[in-house]
Structures are given as C-alpha cells and as structure tokens.
C-alpha cells in the first residue's frame, strides 16, 4: 500500500468509486487535498473509470493533491468491507499526525428505475444492506463518522405547481418504484441513526438530473445496454449507435408539452460533495441535513434536444412518442439552501454540459453498441 499522505486533510471512504458520480467526486476530493479509499464491486461499472481517475489526477496541477486508493469489494459483504476499511484505518493510524477516516460518501447502489420493478429484492438488499453496513463500519472505524448520502429528487414525487421550485422542506411522496423507495427509506434510516448515535453526522444530497462528463473526457457515464436516461440516449443517437430518440410525450401541461427537469453537470454535483464534507468536518452543519443539488432552472426535453443539435451541429433524429409510464411532469430545484449553507452553486451553462457529454461519447466511439 502507498503511504498515506501526511499533509492531507484525512481519508474519505467512498463507495461506488467506479460509477458515474463516484468517479467524478474522487477527482474533486483529491484535488481538494483529501485522500480517498474508493471501493466498488463493478456490478454496474467498469475498472476503466479507475484508469481515467488516475490520469486526471496525475495531470492535475492542484497544489495539495491527496492520494487515491482502490479496493474491489461488495458493500453488502460486511466482513470483507470492514476488513478493508480497518486495513486503511490502522495504516493511517501509524502516523499519529494523520486525521484518519474523516468521512464517507455512499454512492454504491442500483439505480435503474425499471430494473427495480423487475428485481425488487436486488434493490432492497443491495441499496439498504450496503447502507446499514456503511453506517456500522463508520461508527466502528472512524472518530468522525460524517456520511454524505446520495439521495434523489425522486423523494418529492410530482410536486404541486405552487411548490415549484421545490424546497427541502416540501412534503415527500412515497416513490412509485423500489429504486425510489430505497432512497426514501435510506433517508429515514440515516435520520433515525443520527437521532440515536451522538457523534454520527449525515448530509443527504438530493440530486436532480446529473448529466455530462469530465472536461478531459477521461471519465463519464457508461450505461450498460440501451440507455434509459435522456442524455446518453441523445449522444448515442447522435453517434449513430441508436437510430432515433423517442421524446416521451409532448402533451404535458408545460410550455412546449414535454417534461421539465433540472439538469446538473456531474462535475458541479461532485463539487457539492466536497463542499458538504468540508462543512461537516468544520462542524458547520447540523447532525442531519438535507440539500437539493440542482441548478434551480427547469429545462424541457425538447429544449435540451434542440440545444444539443444547435451546439454540436450534429443531425439528431427524434420523434414524439407516447408518455413513459411513471414519469413526473415537471420538477426543478430551489437550490438556495445549498448556496447559503454549503457555499456551493451549479452555474455551468447547459451548452457546455452537453458539449462535455458529446466529447465523452466521441471518445467512447461505439463501445455502447448493444
Ligand atoms: C430518473 C429517476 C431519478 C434517477 C434518474 C437517474 C424518477 C422519477 N426519476 O430520472 O430518480 O436519479 O432517473 O437514473 O424515478 N426521456 C425521453 N426519451 C428518452 C429518455 C428520457 O424523452 O429516451 C425523457 C423522460 O421522459 C424525462 C426526461 O427525459 O422527461 C429525463 O429522463 P431520465 O434521464 O430518464 O431521468 P428521470 O426520469 O428524470
């Protein structure tokens, strides 16, 4: 094992390290001076992402870069997960000046909405058990059990018109899918644990729609099979892998009839995690906190498609298709709490975000063909 850097701000345990958001967050943490122990079982990700992370970090000119460590582990395997964390904890304890494990970010979860309807047990077991293990291990192995949890705007369901843009204290609705339910249950579990365990602190980040890729195009989103999400489907269609994009519905009660979402650049989202951890470590947040992580701006599917066509100049075949079952008509964030308390804001223009997604797709070539 490499030596854990003396000057660093401490070690962050990060689950789901090779995933879309996990990989981008590791880069931002390391550039901010944290060491990172990433774990992943590659169930829905590829080891290629680790190579991408290492290249970006190597090329980065950030002055106090931390170190990146990686271990292949399934977070539902308690004994193996604990053994790995203990290995790094004891290694870091050899240096008495080192701050040890100062926080965890929990990304490891299954996230395909439709798959969750077909395989509810997989979703409940994987998403809930891995969280229970992480909380237990952090309490046991860290003097600073600060946990950032990756939650979702899916917990709000379809907000009433007067609740848009949606605030953190708006009423939650029971999500329709096992995937969404695991996110909501996880929030309740974490909240109960915060009430029960004195030193545990949790920050749940409710993501809106993360899209795009790192500007280097060395890491990005890698969907398996036919993409379910809008932007990977657009870029694959533009690349000639898919024939035609279906726009699901143009008869919604929105200005152009298509659904509205809050699309946030994955790099801005990654930085929100760093901001949250820094504030938790500085004791600036309450024990249990929830933040909307979005741009505060709603964009319709048709606006997004037309922006992509305009900025890339690529021909993109699309047609209007029937509504997709379970889709929410419109939701976007009031992200002012995060701006106020985390001193974080997502303001990258949609044009730049879509260009990053297109650059990533071009680098991938046809690897998604299936
Ligand atoms: C869904 C989940 C969200 C999850 C996210 C990432 C819900 C309500 N939302 O978001 O929790 O974090 O996936 O996995 O469960 N669209 C098309 N054509 C396509 C694909 C999508 O028109 O081929 C439209 C959809 O109808 C929707 C918009 O694009 O209006 C965004 O869809 P998508 O990218 O799948 O994200 P969400 O459904 O918003």
Written account of the structure:
- The structure is a single chain.
- The protein has 370 residues and is α/β, with parallel strands linked by helices.
- It has a domain at 11-211 and 264-295 and 334-347: Rossmann fold, CATH 3.40.50.720.
- 39% of the residues lie in helices and 16% in strands.
- The chain contains 11 helices and 13 strands.
- The chain has helices spanning 20-31, 48-59, 78-93, 113-118, 120-141, 178-196, 230-238, 266-281, 301-312, 336-341, 350-364, and strands at residues 11-15, 35-40, 68-72, 101-106, 146-152, 201-207, 209-211, 245-248, 260-261, 263-265, 288-293, 299-300, 318-321.
- It has a 7-stranded parallel β-sheet, sandwiched between helices. A two-stranded parallel ribbon has the order 7-10.
- Helix 1 packs parallel to helix 2 (48-59) and helix 7 crosses helix 11.
- The two termini are 38 Å apart.
- The model has no long low-confidence stretch (mean pLDDT 95).
- The protein binds uridine-diphosphate-N-acetylglucosamine.
CATH C-level class of the domain at 11-211 and 264-295 and 334-347 is: Alpha Beta
Supply the CATH architecture of the domain at 11-211 and 264-295 and 334-347: 3-Layer(aba) Sandwich
Mean pLDDT: 95
- What is the CATH superfamily classification of the domain at 11-211 and 264-295 and 334-347? NAD(P)-binding Rossmann-like Domain
Distance between the termini: 38 Å
Summarize the main sheet: 7 strands, parallel
Task: Note the beta-strand portion.
Answer: 15-25%
Would you tell me which CATH topology of the domain at 11-211 and 264-295 and 334-347 applies? Answer: Rossmann fold
Estimate percent helicity.
25-40%
What general outline do the C-alpha atoms trace? globular
Strand order of the largest sheet: 3-2-1-4-5-6-11
- How many helices does DSSP assign? 11
Are any ligands bound, and if so which? Answer: uridine-diphosphate-N-acetylglucosamine
Q: pLDDT under 50 segments (min length 5)?
A: none
Class of secondary structure makeup: alpha/beta
* β-strand number: 13
Radius of gyration, in angstroms, nearest whole number: 20 Å
Order of helices and strands: EHEHEHEHHEHEEHEEEHEEHEHH
